[in-house]
Design a protein that fits this description.
By secondary structure, the protein is α/β, with parallel strands linked by helices. Helix content is 37%, strand content 19%. The chain folds into two domains: 274 residues, Aldehyde Dehydrogenase, Chain A, domain 1; 184 residues, Aldehyde Dehydrogenase, Chain A, domain 2, CATH 3.40.309.10. The protein is built from 14 helices and 24 strands. A hairpin with a 2-residue loop joins strand 1 and strand 2. Helix 2 packs antiparallel against helix 4, helix 4 packs parallel to helix 5 and helix 7 runs parallel beside helix 8. The longest helix has 22 residues. It is globular and about 75 Å long.
Length: 529
């Protein structure tokens, strides 16, 4: 059987591999007969060398050319969309005609937003102090490696997703490390990226693809001085191994790791609309077979009669809902292991809790519950992320205990509070919200957290272990671009040697901070040097 080629330095080439692997068809619970290489360190080095060369060339490439590439790539993805969605559906069990339609649209939309950002350059946050003639802006940082997740093969994929798009928009070449669960989908996207590179004339090493590398080579890659930054979405364990390697050499690495996304339902909200909230919770927890990074894995209610009834209602809805197919056998095993950990820590199953029930790799829709007292005794273990169609309901004895529980939480991507519309929960809200606010990147009211809008104001990030750094987001421009940049300062540099966005004339309606005022105007009086 022929092994698929890797993309290095602008060419598809046979791999000098140390072995091969195959992806699975999760619905069939069987391998897909296509071999992909496990690249050697020599191939990693070749990609690093090509990326370094490409970066030297990209620094003199006009921003417009990068924007044109991103738009051309988006067009090419759309032209091949049916084939890409079909293969992604086979490799992930995600529905081709619903979920992946939306994801493909989000992907091309992100690429076009990144193109617009590359064009305007306002993300560079140029600052000019005319009194001292010191000027600064954000600029590209160098070659970036992107490690993509298993659950969003397109919109967060290593060669098409948000990290990829923003790294390119900032002027950096990308080495994409495909997720092993959907290598074929990544290959199709890489083919279109190469065509777009060739069409637009960007350096051939601007976009490269490796499918899998040894764990030891991943650490070596993270430490290599030719690599400037890393974007990673995946398991906490693997991400922290990479972070340790990157931190050892002072390299920025942006991680999305794990999150249980707590939802607090206050007493008045339960009295007012318990059934509706149970419906929303069930839909959010089971969406995508529970394999969204923002699915609510923990719900906190008060243990009065309404709270106890809510637990029973949610369990009934979970039991009645169809069981989805999981992304992989390892996902099935991971969910089973997480549920077992939660039970060992004191959680009791209300429904589900066993392998099977759906097509292929699957696990029964599961609701667990635990008392607030027990949670406070064993908070760390009871925050184990169960990635799939499951949730843990924590039954507290008072609003004050809900506040104590929230104070014990690790960092999360999102957190939500449901409260009564008549104001009867306002006192409770004010008691609990300070604790939740500091433990989540995005705070919601009265809606489930599953959707992540592509908005400049969006924060898809949060305190550890949701991400590796609470000050950055993986969604939303300009915040997501500045991760892959460095701050460059120019002190009394001659005017013609400055980047165009720091010269006295504004190069194109860029917002600049000139002497403390945001403006699109030119610098009024040139500074004497």
């Amino acid at each position: 059987m022929t092994t698929h080629q890797v993309l290095i330095a602008g060419q598809w080439r046979d791999s000098n591999s140390t072995g091969t692997f195959q992806a699975d068809d999760p619905r069939a619970a069987a391998p897909i007969p296509e071999d992909y290489p496990v690249s050697s360190w020599a191939e990693c080095e070749a990609a690093l060398d090509a990326a370094a060369t490409a970066y030297d060339q990209l620094r003199s490439v006009p921003r417009e050319d990068i924007a044109v590439f991103l738009e051309a790539y988006a067009d090419r993805i759309e032209s091949r969309g049916d084939e890409i969605r079909a293969l992604a559906a086979r490799e992930t069990a995600l529905p081709a005609d619903t979920r992946l339609v939306g994801e493909l649209g989000r992907t091309t939309g992100q690429l076009r937003l990144a193109a617009a950002a590359a064009r305007t350059a306002s993300w560079c946050l140029p600052i000019i102090d005319s009194a001292t003639n010191i000027r600064s802006c954000y600029a590209s940082i160098g070659p970036v490696a992107v490690f993509g997740p298993n659950n969003f093969p397109l919109a967060f994929g290593s060669i098409s997703g948000g990290d990829f798009a923003t790294a390119l928009a900032a002027g950096n070449p990308v080495i994409a490390k495909a997720n092993s669960m959907h290598p074929g989908t990544t290959r199709l996207l890489a083919e279109e990226a190469k065509f777009a590179i060739d069409e637009t004339g960007l350096p051939p090493g601007t976009v490269q693809l490796l499918y899998r590398i040894a764990h030891s080579d991943g650490e070596k890659l993270a430490r290599d001085p030719r690599l400037a930054a890393i974007g990673y979405t995946g398991s906490r364990h693997a991400g922290l191994v990479l972070k340790t390697a990157a931190d050892s050499v002072g390299k920025p690495i942006y991680l999305e790791l794990s999150s249980v996304n707590p939802v607090v339902v206050l007493p008045g909200a339960l009295i007012e609309r318990s059934e509706a909230i149970a419906d929303e919770l069930t839909g959010s927890c089971l969406m995508g077979s529970g394999q969204f990074c923002t699915n609510p894995g923990m719900v906190i209610v008060q243990g009065d009669a309404a709270g106890q009834q809510f637990v029973e209602t949610v369990a009934a809805k979970f039991s009645q809902a169809p069981v989805g197919t999981l992304l992989s056998k390892s996902g099935q095993n991971g969910l089973a292991s997480a549920v077992k950990t939660l039970q060992s820590a004191g959680a009791e199953p209300v429904c589900g809790g066993e392998v099977g029930g759906g097509e292929g790799y699957s696990y029964a829709n599961t609701v667990l519950k635990v008392t607030g007292d027990r949670f406070l005794v064993n908070a760390e273990a009871l925050q184990t992320e169960a990635f799939g169609g499951s949730t843990l309901i924590v039954v507290a004895n008072s609003t004050e205990q809900i506040a104590e529980i929230l104070a014990k939480l690790e960092g999360n991507l999102t957190g939500c509070i449901y409260s009564a519309t008549d104001g009867s929960d306002d006192r409770h809200y004010e008691l609990v919200v300070p604790h939740l606010r500091q433990r989540v990147g995005r705070l919601l009211n009265d809606q489930m957290p599953t959707g992540v809008a592509v908005s400049a104001a969006m924060n898809h990030g949060g305190p550890y272990p949701a991400t590796g750094h609470p000050g950055f987001t993986a969604v939303g421009i300009p915040g997501s671009i500045t991760r892959f940049t460095m701050l460059q300062c120019f002190d009394h540099v001659r005017p013609h040697r400055l980047p165009d966005i720091l010269q006295d004339p504004n190069p194109g309606n860029v917002w600049r901070l000139i002497d403390g005022q945001w403006t699109q105007a030119d610098v009024v009086e040139p500074v004497a040097t």
